[in-house]
Amino acid sequence: MGTMADIILETVDRNSLENILEMPLSGIFSGMEDHSLRALRPEPIHGFHRSFDVDIEGELLEFVDGNSESLEMEANPRVQENSYSELVLLLARWCATAEWRCWDARLFLYVEPLLEREVGSDEFLLPSVWSEFSEAIGRTDRATYSESVVLDWMARREALGETMEPSEDPRILPTMHSHKSLSESLFSLVESASRDGCELLIGRDFLEPTEWHLGGGRISELGRG
């Protein structure tokens, strides 16, 4: 059996990220150590979770400590040769304003009704799919989209011969409310990214940092040009 993993979407303030990528690594390290960089972290979107300040600070400090011999501390992150993607991924998460997670085996329920086609699990890591999704939500509203997700889920259950009677399956109503809540929050996240000029950070639990995407490209390619 494969490992259950969440697809992770985060909205990243690209201006904040560009600013921090221009700082020397020593400045980033000291700013994380004394918490002074918290003043430069973008404001979170109300109603969404994102990684706590202290957690990313701890991960960055641990990263620098573990790679101190190979890092150029007086140079900015763009010129680091070793573990570049891991470093930039941590900094991108620092500049995130919101995070949304969904089990990868369930995400098709929220994407396929809007795109009106089947979407493979590996496609959820492609920026092109989320660009298509973003364009599609621009042609509808949150309530209509959420309703289409719930109706599609009901139709799939009925096609499998499963009951939709709460009296026969007590999980029906909680599951329905979960689909409604997750679809509404996904809509809001992607809509806010487009409205606020943020870029989507796209990844998955246990995924190598080099395989994450920000905007239209891989983290490993960010700022290398």
Question: Can you give me a brief rundown of this structure?
Answer:
The chain has 225 residues and is an alpha+beta fold.
Label the overall shape: elongated
How can the largest sheet be summarized?
Answer: 5 strands, antiparallel
Low-confidence stretches are: none
Q: In percent terms, what proportion of residues is strand? A: 5-15%
Verbal overview:
- Helix content is 46%, strand content 11%.
- It has a five-stranded antiparallel β-sheet.
- Helix 6 crosses helix 8 (172-196).
- The termini are far apart.
- A hairpin with a 2-residue loop joins strand 4 and strand 5 (217-218).
- The protein is an alpha+beta fold and 225 residues long.
- It has one domain (6-221).
Keywords:
elongated; five-stranded antiparallel beta sheet; 8 helices; alpha+beta; 5 strands; 225 residues
Show the helix and strand layout.
Blueprint: E1 6-12, H1 14-21, H2 25-33, H3 53-66, H4 84-94, E2 96-103, H5 108-115, H6 127-137, H7 142-159, H8 172-196, E3 199-204, E4 213-214, E5 217-218
Antiparallel strand pairs: 1-2, 1-3, 3-4, 4-5
Helix pairs in contact: 1-4, 3-4, 5-7, 6-8, 7-8
